[in-house]
Write the structure tokens for this entry.
Amino acid sequence: MGVLLSTRAPRAALSVPGARATGTRRCSRHAVVIVGGGPTGLTLAGELALASVDVAIVERRRSQDVAGLRAGGLHSRSIEVFDQRGIADRFLSQGQVTQIVRFAGVALDISDFPTRHNYGLALGQQHIEGILAAWVAELGVPIYYGGEVTGFVEDATGVVVELSDGQSLQAGYLVGCDGGRSLIRKSAGIDFLGSDPTTSNLIAEVEITEEPHWGIRRDALGIHSLSKLGDGPVRVLVTEQQVGATREPTLRDLSEALIAVYGTDYGVHSPTSISRFTDMTRQAASYRKGRVLLAGDAAHVHPPDGGQGLQTGVQDAVNLGWKLAQVVKATAPERLLDTYHAERHPVAARVLRNTMASVALRGGDQRTTVLRDCMSELLGMEEPRKRFGAMLSGLDIHYDLGEGHPLLGRRMPDLDLVTAAGPLRVFKLLHEARPVLLNFGEPGALDMAPWADRVRRTDAKYVGRWDLPVLGAVTSPSAVLIRPDGYVAWVGGPMQARLADALSLWFGPPPAT
Ligand SMILES: Cc1cc2nc3c(=O)[nH]c(=O)nc-3n(C[C@H](O)[C@H](O)[C@H](O)COP(=O)(O)OP(=O)(O)OC[C@H]3O[C@@H](n4cnc5c(N)ncnc54)[C@H](O)[C@@H]3O)c2cc1C
């Protein structure tokens, strides 16, 4: 199917009162419109812009400010995907490197994992979004702050995106990165399957006047904690007695919840943030319907246990970006977009599963306490620690690309290569978000001439071990085809499939001669 607009399509400027874009005026047409400028929408916009796709973000907030407490950092695989784009240092320089992987409160050390980033990064979502917004601005993506999408109309040629101010935008594709209450998902009629909340928590940063019981407390209601943030405010986490509040949480809600658990609110006052989260666990039945796609919280919601929501959204975006770019540019058929759902739906389904298990282990009754102790004992063993550590940090993601070498469908390690031009890290080859054919055999041996303008070929030597998280050492391949998202699409060696088939499948058929 053709696309409505190419990146070279003329843009009609609209002047919209109240709307601000970074660097440009609002245009009425874009190849892709993203609704929502949270971590997922920003990452997707960056990926599309690297592929020279005309993309814009419509964001309801008037600025990038994040209200309340949300994600507290990045896991290893998220740091890796930003390293693949050459921007990991921007995050690392603002956060604190630490071992952050936890399952049901049990710390899982990943410092022996075979990755340059064998740790997590403590960094608030406000800072993560700020860095992403600056990157996207450098890439020239307009963000229409203060713009609220109210609906859309789709036909065979594109999508008309309706805004609350009565104006509209036209797009070839529309991506809903608009969070858990996604209007795009609802308007597209995509089911959001799963379970309603069974528990509700408040998380806040406040001042208190009385000395509290510091640390974690568990009871039949759930988990609660009070901790001091250096010389700064007190971080409060408290489980509420009621589930189902729909309005924004207040200081009074926090005070009542504290009294119900501790018998006092410790003189709580001066909150700098109060947020509510629940254990609602739902996933979109389909990540795509026609020209409309979903990513991030719009496609999956779950409790924040294990800190996986932002990571999953960012990695959805990195999976979708290069595929959508090729479809927009008509170098690959539209069915390539179906691999987005096929690959990413199982990843989030697994996150939903492990967060549900984690919530079940929150309680303070005797049986849950004993069960948590058993889990802790198990996770202290080598193999379970590695498996859960790899799962929660995103390092074990395996897309089902069929039988073959263990690298197939797994993340390409960031090896130190030797090339004719000197030493080179694999991730550096991915900075432009283009596919790479890495040949370790006879220089120039692999024929990919018809794809030469789409796929970068590099002849290289590597003398070390090929080590994968959990799996350990694997046989050295003679070549690998790496997708722009850093996953291996084809492996050269004794059992190799035809390279031309993999190139056609992932990067479109060869141009007609
Ligand atoms: C208390 C708490 C703690 C968390 N901790 C962690 C953690 O430690 N680690 C982790 O990985 N994740 C964590 N998360 C989850 C994480 O915050 C989310 O997964 C992440 O923000 C999802 O990003 P997103 O871009 O998909 O959606 P969002 O961040 O929700 O962004 C959606 C954007 O869309 C905009 N929008 C919505 N509707 C419209 C519309 N109609 N028109 C225009 N714009 C619209 C919104 O203004 C918003 O900016 C936590 C969440 C909570 C609540």
Notes: The domain at 200-278 is CATH 3.30.70.2450 (Alpha-Beta Plaits). The longest helix spans residues 338-360.
